[in-house]
Amino acid sequence: MTTGRTRPVRRGAAAIAGAAALISLAACTPVAGSGSAQPTDVAAYQSTVASSRAAAAAAAKTSACTAWRAAFDKRNPLTDATIAATKDGKWTWDSIGPAINAELAAIATESGTLPGIVATPDLAPTIRTLMTDYKTKLDAYGEGLRADQAARSTSTDSWSRSNPALDALQTVTNNVQGICSIG
């Protein structure tokens, strides 16, 4: 007897559970015309996102350029001093050794800051690439300067490695100054 009575209860419970599942499923199903944003709301949201990204990129550019300029301003006077020391015609490798060593130390310091600049979040790819190129040229100049110093040539090719590297560095420096609006 109990068996007959249990079946209708079980069937009723199953029917209620099934109906509840259908209702919850229907509640999750999108219905045309409901819950959609107005086109003006979508446009406003997209504009806000674009403005936010542009502001982040501008802040990243400012940060990268400021950091680059600070490191450049520490090394560049030492490069100028080394060049000036070779212009008097009486220079020797011993006389300019301290200037070259100071410049090489400044190159190493500046080069060490560049990976952090390149890794600046939200930095535009063009600036990231330019800063990477600058680091490559700076490192090449340092290697050329070190090689020329080690060769200690007294002929006209005294600066055969560092002069071309310095020219390449100057070209990319001009590009960085242009993109960073530094003149």
Structure description:
- It is a single chain.
- This protein is elongated.
- The mean pLDDT is 82.
- α2 runs antiparallel to α3, α3 packs antiparallel against α4 and α4 packs antiparallel against α5.
- By secondary structure, the chain is an all-alpha fold.
- The chain contains five helices and no strands.
- The protein has one domain.
- The protein is 79% helix and 0% strand.
- Keywords: Signal.
- This is Lipoprotein.
What key phrases describe this protein's structure?
single chain; 183 residues; mainly alpha
- Average predicted confidence as pLDDT: 82
| Percent in helix | over 70%
Strand content: under 5%
> Structural class, please?
mainly alpha
**Topology pattern, helix = H, strand = E:** HHHHH
N-C termini distance: 99 Å
> What Rg is obtained from the alpha carbons, in whole angstroms?
34 Å
Largest sheet, strands/sense/barrel: none
What form results from the Cα inertia axes? elongated
The domain tally reads: 1
